[in-house]
Amino acid sequence: MMMEEIIKKIDNDEHCQLLEKRSDLNLPDSYHIPEDMKLYYSYCGGANLFHNKDYQWNILSPNDINNACETVINEPCEATELEYFFCIAEDGNGDYLAINLGKENNGVIVDAFHETFGLAGDTPVIALSFTELLNSLYDNSGDYPYWLGNKERIYRDWFV
User: Fold this and answer.
1) N or C: which end of the chain has fewer CB within 10 A?
2) pLDDT tens digits along 105-119
3) Would you give the distance in Å from CA 159 to the centre of its chain?
4) To the nearest 5 percent, what fractions of the chain are helix, strand and coil?
């Protein structure tokens, strides 16, 4: 599904809410923002997906997109494989999904679970693009995270 279609579906779903656009993405030039992510944030300022369910997801506003290492494990991760990962969504319980804004593997999304983020074997790639992530989270309808219940939905571990 294209970005415009998924935005329209989210906007028309009574269990979801698009947030008003209040600011633009403002990250340093050394980060490569995927085109689909730019397009999404040109329409809105984030979203709340299935706030009435046990497994809701909040697509972060541009002001809340921060380095995943600093946000999730409270440590800087300069010059590591994780330095280009930024939190893009959170579940309301302190766990995040992070997007790679580096030049290589740009747009890849990983589960940034607070207890295992950055550990080989525990950092699953769950989507290859921001559009795929939005589609998958929407299609999952607030049920148990699809990558935890169905290991076939994981592409690989980030470190493999």
Assistant:
1) C
2) 999 999 999 888 888
3) 18
4) 30, 20, 50
Whole-Å CA distances, 23 to 6, 85, 155: 21, 21, 33
pLDDT for 117: 87
Residue with the two structure tokens 């209040």: 22
3-142: CATH, from 1.10.3720.10, 1.10.238.10, 2.120.10.30, 3.40.1580.10: 3.40.1580.10
Reading the block at residue 27, the tokens are 């990250």
The reported pLDDT for the residue numbered 2 is 92
Both tokens assigned to 72: 């999730």
Q: Give the orientation angle of helix 3-12 with respect to helix 35-43, to 10 degrees.
A: 40
Enumerate the domain spans of the chain: 3-142
Return the beta strands (E) in 41-113 as ranges. Answer: 47-49, 57-59, 85-90, 96-100, 109-112
Q: How high is the pLDDT of residue 78?
A: 63
Residues pairing with 112 in the sheet: 96
pTM over 0.85: yes
Q: Which residues are CB-neighbours of 148 under 8 A, at least 6 positions away? A: none
* Residue numbers in the chain where pLDDT is lower than 50: none
